[in-house]
């Protein structure tokens, strides 16, 4: 009946011959070669035995119809090859008359298995691409990460005909994962929640953490109770694909497809789930990045508005104080006006210092000067810095000092700043007449500091935002007394730079707050039994002071102030003039600005150090530049000290007093 023309499987063809009634009467070696049947097997209608049982009746009927019509065209069926594989073929044939004998049919069968497979693959690929395009179109306009997860899970679950489909974020510990949103067929409960990868069993967990996929076709046959079977059966799942997504060596997300009955997942289905989790992650990252940029832009606008507000606030009472001084004839308002101006200038200086600290930290310019230091001493210093605000609100401060033997390995100034910020925060957000407690103790290898108050408290949903930069919590609007929302961010950063931690606890509104800081204890160190006494400034201080400042108001007011204090003063408005005045005036101390016209402060200082008559003059940088790098530059240029504007009067006098100490020793 059939004869092989081309032995290549993907193009195999068979020429066949048969009688008009469809029976085979003569031997056909090609049929034997293709099907493996013997002549006895395919003789007569035995050739039907090589056709798939589901196709035999249809083929026999098609043959009878073909005999009646006189043609056989594109009859398709499955034919068993000699190796047992079923091959898709198409048959074509027509009758052939010879010398008036009954017609004999001749035709050809073509093996179309590979072309059908290619056609199916192309169709599946087109369907897959259409699905991925539909998924992209659905996710692209979404601006909420949870909606991206929900939409992706629904579309994938519906496409695969699954029972449930879920997307999960994996936390940085590569163990806990959160299903925020999933999709399931009606009647199947949601799987949303927080889980541990350990539930999958040790082998699956290890594979998932490496970014490999978990594919289970039959939970009961393939998994034991300890291998994850107990968990899957508990939620009614008998087959699962869990495709993990690893980024930079860490598992970051998973897409899970559940089936309530065993299912023989195909490679194409696994590949699709793998691609969907990758695309979903990309969409979610885009949405989250966009949301973060919007949030940063909103917070930036709020910060700029707050900064303008905070800078205007102290300027207003200062201007009022100046107006009062001008109008008063008898000088009676002078002390009050002075206090107002001094207090508001100090407030502005603290705002600027906080901003500069934040900038330096972000640029990695702050270097901790760590040393073993008594924690009790740091607490006492911090209390002194915060005392004005505490006393102004009539708070009761409870201080529980640790023993003198409790030492921390810390930068003293920065720890005082941390504790002071926490105390100021407690004073600000506690109604007048409240209670604030500052305590410290040792716990293992750490020292624990605690600042607690009975103030307005913090709602649980806002506690996670508390240490973010420029954050002002909404519920504090009626109680806030100013600030840029960076104090607690500085606290967190400075504590973590020490290798410590900070946390907040509050039962909610009007329940008070408790901030807990942990810092590493210092190793055993020999320290003085009592803190060293502060150095006493020498009196009476320098007699001749030169001020070089290009801001005319700043120059004239500082000269007037020094004159009132009893110093002999001279001034200059640019660097070259300052150097000339110094050579004539021979000052014992120079208060020298850095950003001067003609010659800057660095050039002036170097020139003075090269002049034999001025080389021993005490030179103080008095500038608005206060970063560590600025202090290093002034030291390298020959400055003896560095003060940042605005400087407190007692600090200025103490600095000028040092200028006379070398002379006093001669």
UniProtKB/TrEMBL annotation:
This is histidine kinase. GO terms for cellular component: plasma membrane. Keywords: Kinase, Membrane, Phosphoprotein, Transferase, Two-component regulatory system. Residues 1-70 form the PAS domain. GO terms for molecular function: phosphorelay sensor kinase activity. It catalyses: ATP + protein L-histidine = ADP + protein N-phospho-L-histidine. Residues 306-523 form the Histidine kinase domain. It holds the Pfam family HATPase_c. Transmembrane segments: none annotated. It is a multi-pass membrane protein. The modification 4-aspartylphosphate is found at residue 593.
């Amino acid at each position: 009946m059939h004869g092989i023309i081309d032995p290549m499987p993907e193009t195999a063809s068979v020429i066949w011959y048969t009688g008009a009634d469809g029976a085979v009467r003569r031997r056909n070696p090609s049929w034997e070669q293709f099907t493996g049947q013997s002549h006895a097997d395919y003789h007569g209608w035995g050739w039907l035995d090589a056709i798939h049982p589901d196709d035999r009746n249809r083929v026999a009927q098609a043959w009878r119809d073909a005999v009646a019509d006189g043609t056989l065209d594109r009859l398709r069926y499955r034919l068993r090859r000699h190796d047992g594989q079923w091959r898709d073929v198409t048959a074509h044939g027509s009758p052939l008359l010879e010398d008036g004998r009954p017609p004999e049919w001749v035709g050809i069968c073509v093996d179309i298995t590979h072309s059908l497979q290619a056609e199916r693959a192309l169709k599946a690929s087109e369907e897959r691409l259409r699905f991925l395009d539909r998924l992209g179109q659905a996710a692209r306009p979404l601006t909420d990460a949870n909606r991206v997860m929900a939409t992706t899970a629904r579309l994938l679950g519906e496409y695969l005909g699954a029972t449930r489909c879920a997307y999960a974020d994996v936390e940085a510990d590569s163990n806990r994962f959160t299903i925020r949103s999933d999709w399931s067929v009606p009647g199947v409960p949601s799987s949303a929640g927080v889980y541990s990868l350990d539930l999958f069993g040790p082998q699956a967990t290890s594979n998932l953490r490496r970014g490999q996929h978990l594919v289970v076709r039959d939970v009961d046959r393939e998994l034991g109770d300890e291998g994850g079977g107990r968990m899957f059966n508990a939620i009614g799942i008998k087959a699962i694909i869990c495709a993990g997504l690893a980024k930079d060596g860490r598992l970051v997300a998973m897409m899970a497809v559940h089936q309530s009955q065993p299912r023989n997942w195909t490679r194409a289905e696994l590949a699709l789930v793998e691609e969907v989790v990758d695309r979903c992650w990309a969409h979610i990252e885009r949405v989250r990045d966009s949301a973060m940029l919007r949030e940063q832009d909103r917070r930036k606008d709020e910060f700029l508005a707050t900064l303008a507000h905070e800078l205007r606030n102290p300027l207003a009472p200062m201007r009022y104080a100046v107006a009062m001084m001008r109008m008063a004839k008898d000088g009676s308002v002078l002390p009050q006006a002075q206090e107002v101006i001094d207090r508001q200038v100090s407030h502005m200086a603290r705002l600027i210092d906080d901003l500069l600290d934040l900038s330096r930290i972000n640029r990695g310019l702050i270097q901790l000067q760590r040393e073993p230091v008594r924690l009790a001493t740091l607490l006492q210093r911090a209390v002194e810095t915060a005392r004005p605000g505490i006393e102004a609100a009539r708070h009761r401060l409870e201080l529980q000092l640790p023993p003198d033997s409790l030492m921390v390995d810390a930068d003293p100034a920065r720890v005082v700043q941390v504790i002071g910020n926490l105390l100021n925060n407690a004073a600000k957000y506690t109604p007048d007449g409240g209670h604030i407690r500052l305590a410290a103790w040792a716990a293992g290898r750490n020292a624990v500091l605690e600042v607690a108050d009975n103030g307005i408290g913090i709602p649980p949903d806002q506690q996670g935002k508390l240490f973010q930069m420029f954050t002002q919590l909404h519920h504090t609007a009626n109680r806030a007394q100013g600030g840029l929302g960076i104090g607690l961010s500085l606290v967190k950063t400075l504590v973590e730079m020490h290798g410590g931690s900070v946390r907040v606890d509050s039962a909610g509104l009007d329940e008070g707050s408790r901030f807990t800081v942990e810092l590493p204890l210092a190793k055993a160190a020999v320290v003085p039994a009592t803190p060293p006494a502060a150095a006493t400034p020498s009196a009476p201080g320098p007699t001749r002071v030169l001020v070089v400042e290009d801001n005319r108001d700043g120059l004239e007011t500082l000269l007037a102030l020094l004159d009132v204090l009893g110093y002999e003063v001279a001034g200059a408005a640019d660097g070259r003039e300052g150097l000339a005045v110094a050579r004539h005036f021979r000052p014992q101390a120079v208060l020298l600005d850095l950003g001067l016209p003609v010659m800057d402060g660095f050039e002036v200082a170097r020139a003075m150090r090269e002049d034999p008559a001025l080389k021993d003059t005490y030179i103080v940088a008095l500038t608005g530049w206060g970063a560590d790098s600025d202090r290093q530059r002034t030291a390298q240029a020959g400055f003896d000290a560095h003060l940042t504007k605005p400087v407190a009067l007692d600090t200025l006098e103490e600095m000028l007093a040092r200028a006379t100490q070398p002379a006093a020793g001669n």
